[in-house]
Amino acid sequence: MSKPFISVEGAQRQYQVKRGLFGRGKTLHAVAGVSFDVPEGSTFGLVGESGSGKSTLARLVLAAEPVSGGSIRVGEHQLAGLQGARRKAFHRTVQPVLQDPYSSLSPQMRIADIIGEPLRVHGLAQRSEVLAKAEELLTLVGLAPEMARRHPHELSGGQRQRVAIARALGLQPQALVLDEPVSALDVSIQAQILNLLKDLQRARGLTYLLISHDLAVVAYMSDQVGVLYLGEFMELGTREDVVGRARHPYTRALIASSESRVESAPTAMADIPSPIDLPGGCRFQSRCPHATARCAAERPLLRPVGEAHWIACHYDIGGTAGTAADAPAGLAQGRPSAAAPRQRAPATAEATLR
């Protein structure tokens, strides 16, 4: 079992928003106290609808935004208060691969300069060395070296995403944050990019935090899966447990939707509530076909339903009913305390897709 390379402890991110010129300020709860570990060399998949807090959590792990509460560690770097040389060193440790490869690449720059810019900023290459290093990285991601002299508009979507991956690998990071890395690509190209990422992970021992709304992509890539809804985990566990033996109604709704069985979960596919005006009790109760009066009144806590499998639900769909007493002592409002075992995904880097 590998040690955690990314460790998120009770992370929160809140924004103060105001409606109208004279409206009173309200709090938007984008991420509401989540905890998980990503073992070194493994993939943790975050899945959920738009508005669930996935990309906000990705920005927190990248130190693009500060946490409002809790803490995050990546490698040897505690992200709170990162500045100057420490922040620069952190960005060599973890790099992003973003959703839209076209908008993330400057159309005015040659591919060699796009890949070479971070190398020069971090002192890893002189200007005269950029072209050779860019060609080397392009070869690594399956592109012809001569593409280094082209511009982004001359490449296909899949080729542009390979360039984005090459740029991220240039700093020799230990981890990548993959924020919807294939959602903007044709289905025929998606599998090629996912297989490339898996090959690179095996060859370089990379750690991945994968964000996607597509449960099929998460199931293919991930060792561990966290199902996020309105900033909180609804279900946590190994890929086999969460995807193959889903116990939370929201996870089951996502699976039904991904398999085009929308009629299986019509309530769950209604619009997601606003993270400003959160429903009382269970956050999913306004869309859940199994909701009861208890769900509206009492917020469920993450509780174990297996050796390495947790759900935040009063009623274990497909299992046995549970109560709030099943949660570890000290766990309140979905946030771990020092007195309670942390509700996190298990460290199962050994699990691989067959």
Largest sheet: 8 strands, mixed
> Average pLDDT across residues?
85
Helix share, percent? 25-40%
Shape verdict: globular
Query: For the record, what is the CATH homologous superfamily label of the domain at 83-173?
Result: P-loop containing nucleotide triphosphate hydrolases
Number of helices: 10
Q: Got a strand count?
A: 12
Q: What is the third-level CATH name, the topology of the domain at 83-173?
A: Rossmann fold
Task: Tell me the β content.
Answer: 15-25%
Report Rg: 21 Å
SSE run = EEEHEEHEHHHEHEHEEHHHEE
- Derived from helix and strand composition plus strand pairing, the structural class reads alpha/beta
Low-confidence stretches: 261-268, 320-354
Report the span from N to C terminus: 19 Å
The CATH class assignment of the domain at 83-173 is Alpha Beta
Give the strand line-up of the largest sheet: 6-7-8-3-9-10-12-11
The name of the CATH architecture of the domain at 83-173 is 3-Layer(aba) Sandwich
